[in-house]
Every structure is written in structure tokens, then in C-alpha cells.
Amino acid sequence: MIHLNKISRKLLLLQRNELLSNRQKYLRKKFGRYIFTNFLIHYFQKKNLENLTEKLFKNELNTFEKYLPVNVENIVDIGCGLGILHIYINQKYQNQPNFYLLDKNTVDTKIKYGFSENYESYNDLNQTKNILINNGLLNEQIFIKNVDEKISIDKKINLVISLKSMGYHYPIENYIELLRTFCVDETVFIFDVFGAKYSIEKVKENFKEVNIIYEESTAHTLKRLYCKGLNFF
To answer: What CATH number does residue 187 fall under?
Structure first.
């Protein structure tokens, strides 16, 4: 069972709208974000939210698990949020990988969904690290990177993940130059693109191999991609 504290539960409900029931969505709309996330959340059942969260992220992993490399030493996640996915990835790789987790370290004053050049953020990187340590990862496996600061990674990266983040909420091009500093031909990329914004042909401008491995059509059309061979020209 995943373990979440009060602060991380609030952040999670801001990041993952799909964890809300229809009634909870109604309450958020009726009373507003501030009252919802600071007061009404205390009436939610903690165990139920943790069960839903575990199910959600295990399902996420199931959509791409068979495309993961057999052996992984270093993983980068762009737009990691609270990092919950990596609890299960860490279990898969038997506590072996190092995790380089990139995100903003701020909670914006309004909720904004969809594609934007300046995507809003609802995250606390201290909470990200705490959640991972409280759920089985070792401190020495975790490297937190604030994207509003200069980022440097001096390891060969085997796997780059960015779910509902790079390509889905903001342009892939924001991170291409950074990716070129630590990725190699064998690096595997798993990320989502916003269907109305990115065609496969556009993604191929940056990657040699591009495959759609999962599609989802809800409020936004999502294509989950497996890519390999970053173009270095």
C-alpha cells in the first residue's frame, strides 16, 4: 500500500484530476480550488485515495512496461510531479536505478489544464523526495532537479519518462537541448503528446524511431510514445 501524507494528498488531487469522483469535481467547482484543497479534502477517506492512487499509477506503468529496457542504471523523469510512478518502477528494477526527477517547485494560484508555453505547476519537490523514501526508495537513489534552475546530469541515461508533461502540456523543444547533453543512441524515451498539438511527423523531427504504444481520448487526445535515437543535428 502506498503511503501519502496530508500535503502530498492535496498536491496529488491538483495534479491528477482523474482521482476525483464526480461529486468531488462538483464540490471543487462549487466552492473553488482554495476551499476544496485546504478544507474539504480533510473529509476524504485517506485509505480510499491511496488505493485509487496505487491503481492509477500501476495502470500507467502497464501501458508501457513491456517497452522498458531490460537493464536500467539511470532514469530521468521530466515533469515528475510527486514521483509516485517511480515507486513501482523501482520495484520492477529491484531497487537498482538512480532517479533524476525534474519539475518545478511551486504551487500556482490557479488551476490550468491543457497545452501551454508556460504550464502551471502544483508541486513541492521536498514532498516528492519524502514520498519516495517513505515508499521504499533510498536517499542515495534520488536526485531532485528544479527546472527553474540550471540542470546538469553527468551520467549516461538509459530511460527518459515524461507522462502528461513534455509534449502534452508544453513543447518537447523546451527540453531537447538538455536531453542531448546526457542521452545516447540506446536511450529509451516514453512520453505523451497532446494529439491536437503534435503529429507523429513533428515528433520525428527530434527522434529517429517513433511508435505509438497507447492512446487515450478524454478531455484531451493523448498519444503515449516509445521513441529511440534522439537526433543530434
So the answer is: 3.40.50.150
